[in-house]
Amino acid sequence: MPPLVLDNFPSTPGKVKLERNNYFGRMSHRWHTSSLTNPLLWLFGLASLAVVLLLLLNSLDGYGYSVVHIGSTWGGAQWEKQVRLSAHPKRRENKVVLVTGAAGFVGMHVSLALKKRGDGVVGLDNFNNYYDPSLKRARRGVLENHGIFIVEGDINDAALLKKLFHMISFTHVMHLAAQAGVRYAMENPSSYVHSNIAGLVTLLEACKSAEPQPAVVWASSSSVYGLNTKVPFSELDRTDRPASLYAATKKAGEEITHTYNHIYGLSITGLRFFTVYGPWGRPDMAYFSFTKDILAGKPITVYQGPKEMDLARDFTYIDDIVKGCLGSLDTAKKSTGIGGKKKGQAQYRIFNLGNTSPVTVPNLVNILEKLLKVKAKQHIVAMPGNGDVPFTHANITLAHEEFGYRPTTDLSAGLKKFVRWYLSFYGADGVNRS
Ligand SMILES: O=C(O)[C@H]1O[C@H](OP(=O)(O)OP(=O)(O)OC[C@H]2O[C@@H](n3ccc(=O)[nH]c3=O)[C@H](O)[C@@H]2O)[C@H](O)[C@@H](O)[C@H]1O
C-alpha cells in the first residue's frame, strides 16, 4: 500500500498555503493533572478526536493516498435536483456537457455559451486558492443566474465522478480544470502533478467506465512547443522539449489521453490554447496583473529574451477560444467503448487555438497604458530561467479546416473589452464591486 501522506491543504493546493495544524502542540503545555478531572475538557478532547478521525476518513481516496476534500459539499436530494436541472438540455438534440473548471476563466465563458444555445451544462470546480477564490465565486454567481449549477468538488474525487456519470448521461466532457501558470510550477510542482496528471487520469477512468462514454474535449497548452523555434507552431512540430513542468504535464496529458483513446475507445480532442485573455480573466496572467499594478502606480516587471529581444505571445481573445471549444465539441465523434471496452477505432485530434498574430510584451504594455490613461513604471529585466519561452505563434490551419476556426479579435480590441470589465468589477482602486 502506498504511504499515507497527510497534507493539510486543499486537494489542489493553491498559492495561499494553509498552516499545518499544530493544535495539539499548542494545547499540550496547558494540560496538567487537574485538567484530567475536568469533564468539560474531556468532552472537548473527545469532540476534537472525532473531528480528526472524520478528516482522516475523508482524506483517503481510492488509491490510499490522502486527499483532503475541504469544501467538498456534494450529495443529498437537493444537490441531485440541482445537478439534474442544470444538466437538462433545451431540446432532445442538444448536448449534455460536464464542464470541469467551470468557475475558471475559460470554463465560465464556455459554460455560458453552451447553456445559451440550449445544451445541458453541469459545472465542476474545486474553488482552490491558486488565485483569489472570490473571483471564482463571482463567476459562479454569473453561471447561477443562467441556470448553471457548479458541483463543488475535485477531479481527483473518483466517487464524485462515478456518482455524476451514474446520474447523468453526459454526451461530452469539456475538461478545463487544471493547475495553470508557467512560472508557478517552480514554487509548487506537486500541484501540477496532482491536477494535470492524477486528476486527468481519474477523470478519464470515470469517462471510460461511463455508459454511454462521453466524447472528451480538453485544454492542452501552447507551452507544449517548448524550445521549438520553427514558426508558426504547427501541430506536427516537435513537442518533446518542454521548458516548464507545466508544459511537461500538458504534454503528458496529450499522451495519457492517447492511451485512453487507444485502449478504451474514448473520443479525444486536445486544444492547445495560446495565452488566452479577456474579461473575467486570470489575475496571475501578465495583462491582468499589469493592469492592476499600472492603476495602483506600482512598477511592473517586463522580461526580455537573450540579446535584449522582446518577448512575444500569440495572445488569443476569450470569445475566439470559446468558438474553438464549441467547434471542437460539435465536430467530436462519439466514443466507441461499451462496458469499459473499446469496440472500434475512436477519434483522436489535437488543434492549436491561437490568434496567429504575436504581439510583443512592450506592445501589450503600450496598449494598456493608452486604455488606462496611465504611464506604466517599467522595470525591464532579463527573462529568468523559470520555464518561460521567448515567443509563441500558432498555425491554425487544422482547426480552420475541421470546424472553420477563425479568430476575429485583435489584442487592442480584446484588451479594451478586458479593461472595461476590469474597471466595472474592481474599479480603478482595485476594490471588487460585485
Ligand atoms: O499559452 C499557454 O499555454 C500559457 O499561456 C499563459 O502563459 P504565458 O504565455 O506565459 O502568459 P503570461 O504569464 O500572461 O505571460 C505573458 C508574457 O508576459 C511576460 N511576463 C509575465 C509576467 C511578468 O511579470 N512580466 C512579463 O514580462 C511573460 O514572459 C510572457 O512573455 C498562461 O498563463 C498559461 O497558463 C498557459 O495557458
From TrEMBL:
Cellular component aspect of the GO annotation: Golgi cisterna membrane
Bilayer disposition of the protein: Multi-pass membrane protein
Compartments, record wording: Golgi apparatus, Golgi stack membrane
Transmembrane segments: 40-57, 96-114
Catalyzed reaction equations: UDP-alpha-D-glucuronate = UDP-alpha-D-galacturonate
Membership in a protein family: Belongs to the NAD(P)-dependent epimerase/dehydratase family.
Database matches in InterPro entries: Epimerase_deHydtase (IPR001509), NAD(P)-bd_dom_sf (IPR036291)
NAD-dependent epimerase/dehydratase domain span: 97-332
The organism's place on the tree of life at top rank: Eukaryota
Pfam families, per the entry: Epimerase
Enzyme class: isomerase
Keyword terms of this UniProt record: Isomerase, Membrane, NAD, Transmembrane, Transmembrane helix
Entry-linked SUPFAM superfamilies: NAD(P)-binding Rossmann-fold domains (SSF51735)
Entry EC no(s): 5.1.3.6
PANTHER family listed in its UniProt record: EPIMERASE-RELATED
Predominant location category: Golgi
Gene3D superfamilies assigned to the protein according to its UniProt record, in alphabetical order: NAD(P)-binding Rossmann-like Domain (3.40.50.720), UDP-galactose 4-epimerase, domain 1 (3.90.25.10)
Lineage of source species: Eukaryota, Viridiplantae, Streptophyta, Embryophyta, Tracheophyta
GO molecular function, one term: UDP-glucuronate 4-epimerase activity
Protein name: UDP-glucuronate 4-epimerase
